[in-house]
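hi!! sorry for the late reply, been swamped w classes. u asked for the two structures so here they r. pasted raw, havent cleaned anything up. first the sequence of the first protein and right below it the tokens
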Amino acid sequence: MIHGPRDRVVLTSDITLGRREEEEYKNGIEFKGGHLRIYGAGHTIDARGKSSIFNFDGEHVYIENAVIKNGLDAISNTGSLTFVECSFLKNSGAIINDGKLRVENWTFRKNLNDGGAAGAIVHNGGYLQIDMSDFEENCAKDAGAICSSKSGTIFGCNFTKNQADGAGALSCKGDFKVMHSKFENNMAIRDGGAISNRNADLLISHSTFKRNFASKGSGAISNHGNLSVEYCDFNENGVGLCGGAIRNVCNLKISETYFRYNRSCLRGGAISSDGGILEISDSSFSGNRGAIGEEICISKEDVLKLDNCRLVDDKIAYNESYPHCDFSG
């Protein structure tokens, strides 16, 4: 059907990789050049854990209402690809994107990429846009859900119970925007329980972070780039070392944001900063706890500026070696 004379395919039944097809389709069904529209009608395409499923390099490929299941790096894309109202389930790596990828109303659940970059999406090139999608219980080495080295946008998405050695949900190495999204119960070991920013310009707005956890990095966000946070809520995040909500080692700007009941076993119940410029305005801190610095802990290399912030606890900041601090409002 894919290689037939028409550019429109409608599935009328589930599709399962046959035992005699494993070698022929080990790299997936290839489609190169032209336009293709696949309407899944709710049916499943199942690779049985034996092969990839699709390899796209088309001018534009559109897939709607299908279930992609049990693929090995299920879909590779170097062209222009759009998914609408689909599901990825139990793939060993869901999507590798080196082109233009748009995802809308998708569900990524229990995709496991053991030792790989990401359970759901590895974004290496082009552009990535993800709208109104859910990422649940995905797991990999670098990022539980998404690992991106190029630019992209996330809007209106939910990230729940994703896990990784690096970032629980999202790792950014390219400029990125995250808007109107929720990160809850994600877990990591060495970076951010929810997000790790690695030398990128990252904007996070109108989003919530709740009960995310990391052993060594930061409860919610680990920042090694330029991070802007606005109109967000950090609630009950935790870390084994520094930064119950955010750990910063570069430049961090926060505005109109709430930090409530975050926990750190060592430094910075809400925020720990280890170098760079930390600017916080029109934000509120309450109930955060850290062994050193109930709310904010900063190092001697930092520049800290607080403007019109509400800090309920007595200790508004712990200054290791009296860095430059500017408190106003």
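now the second protein. again sequence first, tokens right under
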Amino acid sequence: MDIEKSKQYIRMNARPLDYLRWNYLFEGGSRTAVLDALAAYQNDDGGFGHALEPDCWNPESSPVQTWVATEIIREVQLDDRNHPMIRKIIGYLSSGRDFDGHTWANTLPSNNDYPHAPWWTHHEHAEISYNPTACLAGFIVRFAERGSSSYALGCRLVIESYKYFKNNFPMDSMHTVACYVRMYQYLVQAQTEDLIDMDEFRLLLHRQVTEVITDDTSRWASEYVCKPSLFIETRGDEFYAENKDIADYESGFLDRTQEPDGTWAITWEWDKFPEAWPIAKNWWKCDRIIKTLKYLSGIK
């Protein structure tokens, strides 16, 4: 694997945010610089938009793009609940915007006004989805002030999310499962043991993660399928041991499948907006480089 090629690609092609993520993760760069760049995507209402999620170019705040921001906050290990960015996110999530009382919207009508991937097209009467609600509920419990109305909202939604998880177990949506994994991790960090049965949740998640990973590795190079790296970050991750063989296989797979320019293949595409997709694809390549090297450094 040629890390220098990946580094060169990032330096020549990445958005400022992703360039600074690279610097933070691999070159001792500044967390503050990452957060300053991330703040450019945050709207006055506290939510995030402006194509932070490269497949959705809607500038308006949306729950999904706000979820992306929470993932970057986690990536740089920001744990200060009083940080202005976190406080504004909690404000957005508590405002009732893009929220039906039980779940945050997975897509918004305004998505349709801007370039986007087909899966972010808004359709009326869409099915209930706990992507990203489960993750965002956990984020609130982790970061909201105990005893606040926001914290109470997060607690209620964690309970509702878990009930949905049990009633629909096992799930076949890898991204929804990933949201539940993150909810679980937030609850562990928050040391909140009395909201749901955490032992039961842990056991069900272990079964769910193993089941949703695509074990037909012949599909990995050309299809958008579920790989261990969606859930497993390091050998110390609690989902690693029982998925060790396939997680280690992914490490070797990534070593073998790096492109000559230092990137990895993007195995999806848009069916519309041909002028925007090449730009989004390039952003995804940079994000994929970062996530791939994070995974490899944690698993090897």
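hope this helps!! also noticed smth abt the second:
The longest helix spans residues 277-299.
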